Amino acid sequence: MVKVIQTGFYTSVQDLGRFGYQQYGVPYAGVMDERAALIANLLLGNAKNNAVLEFTMTGPKLQFLCKSRICITGGDFQPKLNSIPIKNNSVIVVKKNDILSFGAKKSGFRGYIAVLGGFLTDVVMKSRSMFKNVTQHQTIQKNLFLPIKNAVTIKKQSNASLVVNNVYLEEKVITAHKGPEFHKLTIQQQKKLLNTVFTVSKNNSRMAYQLTELLPNTLEPIITSVVLPGTVQLTPSGQLIILMKDCQTTGGYPRVLQLSNTAINILAQKFTGDKLAFSLI
Amino acid sequence: MTTNVNYKIFGDTSILVEWQPVITKDILSDVLAFKSKIEAFYTSGIEITTAYNSLLIVFDDFRINLTNEIENLKQIYSQKSKRKQSNSTLWKIPVCYEDEFGIDIKEIAAEKNISVDQIIALHTKTVYTVFFIGFLPGFLYLGGLPEELAMPRKAAPRLKIKKGAVAIGGNQTGVYPVESPGGWNIIGNSPLPFFDITKDVPCFAKAGDAIQFYSVTKKKYDDIKTLVNANVFQIESEDYNG
Question: Which residues of chain B does A225 touch, with a Cβ-Cβ cutoff of 8 Å?
């Protein structure tokens, strides 16, 4: 078990999400930065779909009530074990009563905590990813106990670590495919969409990232159609909304771009005020 | 029926198929027929989502060659369907339209200059087509609202709409399957579970089915709710060939 002492700003259990439930209107959910979660699970020898904790802006404070191996990835939030600094992208052995905490954010916007065997919270619709009205909790709660495997056989510190090239945390250009309604934009609008440096607005969450700069828009709404994480919608007021992992399954705004999976990882590490530009694949 | 369909690559691992931009039951049938043919061809590793005039195939494999798959899909679309269309069901949905639940029904009556009873009569006589599920888990997109009941969305959305709320927004009607913010006009509430995470298939209705509402008293509503909570309520239904 792991006891939640402090939750952090927005911390949830996530795996790779729910595949096969879009037809019931159930969002994919799942980790926002798949790359970071995959690295953490890989270093621990976990399956790639093992559930991790995803935290946002500030890290949680956790007490381990059993032995385990853990790995922290994604943004750098200065992790500490019993107040002693530890490194991202390394395998760390934790003992009973050890306390994991975080300092101020140094890079990125989301961090990931993986444990040996993954977090073993309830599986609902083939996934542990927390989502409102699907799992019991939408985020972890203070004093909640998160089940994990008690790794009694672990003897000594592991030295496994990975030199991870984390330049993607600072990347400003994100790659995208043309969306289904891209061709309905005028050439001028297309150029503006592809040549503007946009700013992430304060409306950014696991559901969607809104951009501050507007793209003057004359497109009519479309007949409600399907959308995906990474779909860039253009509203009648010219606002660009990039859907993320907790997004709805359908929408009625024109879909001008569709981000690559790599671009979604990059965007997941951006927050209010960060800059980005689109580049067509 | 011959219909033109367009194929578009949509992101790294998905293909979007689009029909002409109109909302009709013929297009819905064609979308759903194509869906079942695709499901018969790819037995795993894909997920299909449909809407009014569109179908999305997401491949659970980042190595997929989408250009090849589009050719494949064109072949599948042109094949005659081997299986018969899957059966559709007409679901009878109890709704309590009394004041406690139908918080906007008097306002609509005043706006339309008709009685509350007439609104209930119009709302319950219609057989609505389920086009797809979206917006919220278990939210049915229903077609067929009588024109007389069309009512613009509220200027200021409510922050909390009760689970089960039956509502009208523009020319659409629907049931909120879970508590949610929303701007539709609330005319009643249904005690049925439209989204049930304890079931393998969380929604009883599917695209292509039909819905008809019937009016119940608060007493009957409470009785049904008790049976629903005990997991013993049988939703009334019949075969449907609309």
Answer: 16, 18, 51-54
Q: Is residue B1 part of a domain?
A: no
Determine the pLDDT at residue A152.
76
Q: Domain boundary residue among B16, B49, B78?
A: B78
Q: Is the pLDDT of residue B1 over 60?
A: no
Task: Measure CB to CB from residue A25 to each of B10, B13, B134 and give the nearest one.
Answer: B134
* Full residue range of the structural domain in which residue B159 is found: 88-240
pLDDT tens digit sequence for A260-273: 999 999 999 999 99
What local confidence, expressed as pLDDT, does residue A217 receive?
Answer: 86
The token duo for A272 is: 């209010």
Domain count of chain B? 2
By DSSP bridging, strand A99-102 and strand B46-50 are: unpaired
**A228 and B9 in contact by Cβ < 8 A?**
no
Cβ–Cβ of B50/A225 closer than 8 Å?
Answer: no
- Residue A66 near residue A151, CB atoms below 8 Å: yes
What's the whole-number average pLDDT of chain B? 93
B158: three-class secondary structure by DSSP: strand
Q: What is the pLDDT of residue A221?
A: 81
Cross-chain CB nearest to A19 (options B47, B52, B197): B47
Domains and CATH numbers, chain A: 2-166 (no CATH), 171-280 (2.40.100.10)
Given A22, A258, A259, which is nearest B47 (Cβ)?
A22
**Surface of B (5-24) touching A: CB under 8 A:** 8-14, 16, 18, 21-23
Facing residue for A25 by CB, picked from B18, B23, B136: B136
Is the CB of B11 less than 8 angstroms away from the CB of A260?
yes
Q: What is the pLDDT of residues B137-184, one digit of tens each?
A: 999 999 999 999 999 988 888 989 999 999 999 889 999 999 998 889
Q: Cα angle vertex B136, ends A110, B218, to 5°?
A: 135
- For chain A, count helices (H), then strands (E): 3, 20
**A131-143 average pLDDT score:** 96
Distance from CA of B207 to the nearest CA of A (A): 9
Say if strands A145-146 and A2-6 run parallel, antiparallel, or are unpaired.
antiparallel
Within an 8 Å CB–CB cutoff, is residue A22 touching chain B? yes
Q: What angle do CA A215, A255, B151 make, to 5 degrees?
A: 90
Q: Which residue out of A15, A16, A23 would a mutagenesis test of the B interface target, given it has the greatest number of B Cβ atoms within 10 Å? A: A23
Chain B residues in contact with A177 by the CB 8 A cut-off are 9-12
pLDDT in tens, B19-38: 999 999 999 999 999 999 99
Q: Which of B125, B106, B131 is closest to B188 using CA atoms?
A: B106
Q: Is A35 exposed, middle or buried (0-12, 13-18, 19+ CB in 10 A)?
A: buried
Angle at A229 between CA A224 and CA A234, to 5 degrees: 50
Residue after which a domain boundary falls, among B78, B107, B132: B78
ipTM: 0.91
